[in-house]
Amino acid sequence: MSQQSNWPLWEVFVRSSRGLSHVHAGSLHAPDAQMAVRNARDLYTRRNEGVSLWVVKSEDIISSDPDEKDAFFESPQGKDYRHATYYKASEGVKHL
Amino acid sequence: MNHDELDAELDSFGDALASATRVTPGNALRPEDIAVGGAKPSEDVARYALTLGDDALILAQRLSHWISRAPELEEDIALGNIALDVLGHARSFLTYAGLAWDKTEDDLAYWREEDDFTSLWIVEQPNGHFGVTIIRQLIVSIFQHLLYSKLTESADETLAAICAKAVKEVDYHRDHAIQWTVRLGLGTEESAAKMRHALEILWPYVDEMFQDQELHRKLDGIAVLPSSLREDWDKEITAVLADSGLEIPKTGQAMANGRGGEHSEHLGFILAEMQVLARKHPGASW
């Protein structure tokens, strides 16, 4: 078990069926990419969950900074006009 | 429309949306289907199915021992999955064989004696270190992959159907063993030495896998002659070993006769552990 720290962490994305997107399922350790996709198969598709897998090295994912949450994500709040539901159909438009 | 209304509308699509993502077990031939709807095999076909089932059962029992003991958490699940796949094959073969003798898979697994088991010696060999288990998997899964591939064309429809499902699974087991053989063979000096050692202690059980029996000849068109698989097996394993910086060891061959019910010293211990619960509490269920 002590060796585990030598194996990089990988993020796993599973597509559950044709036409849907790959969705993040979790992470795992593996020595290399080929083994990572096999481990992903064993860990995340054993109940028929998937038809396709992606693995990405966790360190290759650039994520937004949680401390920047306000600056990053609060701006759209209250801006109802960015949603289609904000607008009323004009009386002249019958089939909208 | 406000958010609550939108949620309500999405909810109304609930079933339609869920159907695209719902996880189902899927459809495949199960032992339960064979027990209920399977055609009764002839005595010879049953004896043949029993040999395939015994190989799978003993290998599954050996592999299950890795659960909670594998070198990595991920590998623990990989070996556990493989053990369960192989146990599934055993259940199908034993269920089918049992139809000839009015016995269930459990009757055959738990209530036969050591000399009734027809499994090969290779599958009862100890797990050893991880490399030994990987080499055993390499030897057996390449063999089973070739065997089950051919059996999908067997004149016996049930055997062909069981193998059609099993061949896809052993294809993965083979890949798993190859991946590890390459990595450990080309890994460190120590991992390569351990792989060479694993090959030396397991190679003596190779020839037995390819010995033709009277039963195979009698079941022309139904069974596969094991000797007919040797050339492809040799070619495949030699290539894997070459890619791994390993080679076929120079060892003698064991006088193995598992098909005739004669076993190495290991099978008795495996059966004692596997059968004790069923024998202590006959007919128990939960």
From TrEMBL, chain A:
Pfam families documented for this protein: PaaB
Cross-referenced InterPro entries: PaaB, PaaB_sf
Name of the protein described by the UniProt record: Ring-1,2-phenylacetyl-CoA epoxidase subunit PaaB
Originating species: Glutamicibacter protophormiae (Brevibacterium protophormiae)
Automatic annotation (TrEMBL), chain B:
Molecular-function GO terms, alphabetical: phenylacetyl-CoA 1,2-epoxidase activity
UniProt superkingdom: Bacteria
EC number: 1.14.13.149
Gene3D superfamilies for the chain: 1.20.1260.10
EC class name: oxidoreductase
Keywords: Oxidoreductase
SUPFAM superfamilies listed in its UniProt record: Ferritin-like
Protein's name according to its UniProt entry: Ring-1,2-phenylacetyl-CoA epoxidase subunit PaaC
